[in-house]
Amino acid sequence: MQRPDPRKRAKITAAAARLFAREPYHEVTLDAVAAAAGVGKGTLYVYFRGKDELYAALIEDGFARLLDDLRAELGTSRRAAEALAAVLRALFQFARRFPYLFQLMRSGQQLPGGGNLQPLRAQLTALIEKTLRAAVRRGELADRSPRLTALYLPSLVRAVVLYGPADCSDARAAAHVLTTLLDGLRPRRGRRPRIRR
Q1: What's the first-to-final CA gap in the chain, in angstroms?
Q2: Which residue from 58, 45, 46, 63 is spatially nearest to 13, judged by alpha carbons?
Q3: Of 26, 152, 41, 130, nearest to 78 (Cα)?
């Protein structure tokens, strides 16, 4: 019987992540994952019970990495706009790596394989909230409910990924979300809003 090897598991998950990012979930087979990872199909079962569990592990690993990256990036002193831009960039990158996750979320399904993102989502919310509260203390933001803002910020990214116009780049969408958050929707005195088509 084969013993689990962390390097081999990482090789398998890296190959699977590339495939799931390129192809719809239902079109990715374990045979394709094994071939891309350069291992036998039976080796996959040493690490995962099936495709659902593999995909759930990818999402959980990716979300944990997203949190680690954001903690490192937001740990330095940053102005509110820079910090929020970093959060939005990270969320859009995550969304593009795991497009099927957003389809699952839209339909209200759980992660395949019984995975649970709730603890990780709670950590993300807390990290965004902490960033917003620090900006409020510095006088950069006037957010009356940083917790509420922290809860809906990832939902804005999800909405753009699922329903946004195809010709809208992630950078443009992130800039729009950031501008809306920082400036609000009310026109400034003496200026008429310009609607971008």
Answers
A1: 60
A2: 58
A3: 130
Closest among 124, 147, 123 to 136, alpha carbons compared? 147
Report d(CA 135, CA 32) in Å as an integer: 47
Q: CA torsion sign, 18 to 20 to 23 to 26?
A: positive
Which CA distances in Å does 82 have to 28, 79, 88, 159, 175? 37, 5, 10, 22, 11
Backbone φ and ψ of 109, nearest 5°: -80, 160
User: Of the candidates 122, 154, 123, 138, which has an alpha carbon nearest to the alpha carbon of residue 77?
Assistant: 138
Which domains, from first to last, does the chain contain? 1-47 (1.10.10.60), 61-183 (1.10.357.10)
Per-residue pLDDT of the chain (197 residues; tens, 9 = 90+): 577 888 999 999 999 988 988 888 889 999 999 999 999 999 999 999 999 889 888 888 888 888 998 998 888 778 999 999 999 999 998 888 777 776 665 554 566 655 667 788 889 999 999 999 999 999 999 999 999 999 999 889 888 888 888 898 999 999 999 999 898 877 766 665 555 55
In degrees, rounded to 5, the angle at the alpha carbon of residue 54 between the alpha carbons of residues 50 and 60 is: 145
Alpha helices in the chain (DSSP H): 6-22, 30-37, 41-47, 51-74, 80-97, 99-107, 118-137, 146-163, 170-183
The model scores a pTM over 0.85:
no
